[in-house]
Structures are given as C-alpha cells and as structure tokens.
Amino acid sequence: MFLPIVAKTFVELGYRRSTTAEIAGRCGVQENVLYRIWPNKKAMFLAAIGFNREVTTTTWRGVVEAAEESQGKKRGGRSAAEMILEHEAGHHGDWGLHRLAFAGLNEIDDEEILLALQGMYETFVGFIVDVVAKHREAAGLQKKTKGDLEVLAWGFVGLATAADIGRDLRLMDGKKRAKLMRELGGVLLK
C-alpha cells in the first residue's frame, strides 16, 4: 500500500533528497510505521527498484497476452515485440520510474543498490530477448545467437533511456519520443 508512494517520492526527489520523514509524510503515517516494514531508507529505495521491475514486467506481460490473443483471432497480427514497442512509444516514462534507475546509478558504490539495479536490468533484458526472439522467428528472420539478442535488447534499453532523457529535459515532446521509439525500435526488430 505504501510502496507506490515510496517509489513516487524517490522518483520526484531522488535518493539523497528523499528523507524518511518526507516519505512518511507523503504516506500519511509516522516514520515508525515505515520502519516496521523497512529498516531504513536504503531498504525503501531497494523496494522501490523492485517495484519498478514488477510494474514494468507486469505491464509488458499484459501486452504480450494481448498480442497472443490478437494473433489467435486473426492471422498477421502484430507480434508481442511490436506491441510492446507500440505501447512504450505511447506510454514510456508515464510513471517516471526510470528516475529510480537514474538515482540509483549515483549510488552503485553501494553493493545492494548495484545488485538491485543489475537484477532489474537483467530482468528487462531477458524479457526483451525472449519477445524479440519470438518476433524474429515468427517473421522468418535470421535466427540470432543469445549474445546477439542481448545486444539488441540493450539497444532497446538505450533507446528507452534516450527517450527518458529527452522527456525529462523537455527536449522531446510525446510525438518525437513516440517516433523515436517506433522508428528506431522497428529497425532493431529487423
């Protein structure tokens, strides 16, 4: 119940500027209530990173299920990879959860934060590898090695990061970000 608020606080203030008092205030509770759940601010941040991973993969799983359902109803439906790309083109960064990763990058000297970020990105890359491999197979494209698919997946991560930076710096509006995701993402899928 508190985790979305905790995550939102870290998104808005970053790790260093977020205090347990601020987080508790936003949750509408005293700090000791949060300390019954998490022992300290770092544990709250680690939970927020886990929340980011869960929200993202749950969203992507929903898109995959919709893609599989649409493919079952008609031939020539879009692949899960194409539908995830389309979804991200329209909704990427809506929650601002990417800022958790950005804030965490400043803290990677801390082994637990480093491991949490590694786990999050390994999950994302693994998911992308799977949907891209299925897309390529269904499209009759040349099969790629797992290593090559991982490189492609990191290309998608880089693309999403560029869209995040463009959004946060107010250098790219929604149309430009969507075009970036669709066009360059489409190139990566080939």
Automatic annotation (TrEMBL):
<feature type="domain" description="HTH tetR-type">
    <location>
        <begin position="8"/>
        <end position="48"/>
    </location>
</feature>
<dbReference type="Pfam" id="PF00440">
    <property type="entry name" value="TetR_N"/>
</dbReference>
<keyword id="KW-0238">DNA-binding</keyword>
<dbReference type="InterPro" id="IPR009057">
    <property type="entry name" value="Homeodomain-like_sf"/>
</dbReference>
<protein>
    <submittedName>
        <fullName>Nucleoid occlusion factor SlmA</fullName>
    </submittedName>
</protein>
<dbReference type="GO" id="GO:0003677">
    <property type="term" value="F:DNA binding"/>
</dbReference>
<dbReference type="InterPro" id="IPR001647">
    <property type="entry name" value="HTH_TetR"/>
</dbReference>
